[in-house]
Amino acid sequence: MTPTKRQFTRLATAMAASLLLVGVAQAQTALDDIMKAKEIKIAVPTDYPPYGFVGTDLKPQGLDVEMANYIAGKLGVKLEMVTVTSANRIPYLQTKKADLVISTLGKNPDRMKVIDFTYAYSPFFQAVFAAKSLPVKSFADLSGKTIAVTRGAMEDEELAKVGPANMDVKRFEDNAATIAAFVAGQTQVIATSASAAGTIMYKNPQLNTEYKLLLKDSPNFIGVNKGEDKLRLKVNEIIAEAKKNGDIDKMSQKWLGRPAGNLPE
User: Fold this and answer.
1) Residues with Cβ < 8 Å from 32, sequence gap 6 or more?
2) What are phi and psi of 149, to 5 degrees?
3) Is 261 or 9 the better-scoring residue by pLDDT?
4) For residues 177-199, b (16+ Cβ closer than 10 Å) or e, as one string?
5) Which of 1, 67, 201, 250 is most buried (CB neighbours < 10 A)?
């Protein structure tokens, strides 16, 4: 009997549905593969202190590196760290060179089209930093202080909203110049990102720079391949427990100088 057009349509629909189910099933294998191999590949930065950098012992360290080790430990598997940059971290995930990306990854609509995200695991923020010896407990304490800031940057705009009228803001044309001015002692205070401050602390420990006041918070999330819900939910469990038992706050305090606070899910 010759198949009718309707039968061909039904057959094609059934085949498409079957392929879709196969695709979904294949997309859900990452966690099983990790547990079977007893190894997880996690992409981390090594050029972005204090989140990821190479220490004096030539080993990767930082908040993102510690979080990668933490997740591997909770899964009970070996960690293979994969070094990435801002430009290749998402492609490495998409091409399965990494199972997860822990690399100061912010969540936005464009990224959400191509990868999935776990709960937030750490803050990324702009803040006011200064030497430990300089008493700054509130924005009012910035009165009369000299403050280095990059012209037009987010921290410049946020500081203008909350700082006292008589703070002495010294604006520079780029981040390098802003950091150089603070390190050289041209200003008492610097308003900058957590990463830039981390670089200052790492390269200039004699300055005893520390976190003082928060300007703006924007959290980091862990990247997971699209459709890998089992892996994403498992990592969410680990993050949720780490928030509850204080481990997330301890990591943040260690590397950023402040607790993680209330991070979004």
Assistant:
1) 230
2) -150, 150
3) 261
4) ebbebbbeeebbbbbbbbbbbbb
5) 67
